[in-house]
Amino acid sequence: MGWTPTYTVAELCKEMVLADVELFKRDKYLIEGGHKVLNYKE
Length: 42
Hints:
mainly alpha
């Protein structure tokens, strides 16, 4: 197939955690402004 990965597992995990942190920052900002946000509990 000729496929090779472009990410390591550690890099992928880091990118996923950073994306979650940005989501939480946005939600915190919206909550502090009096807005409702979705509950992302998984």
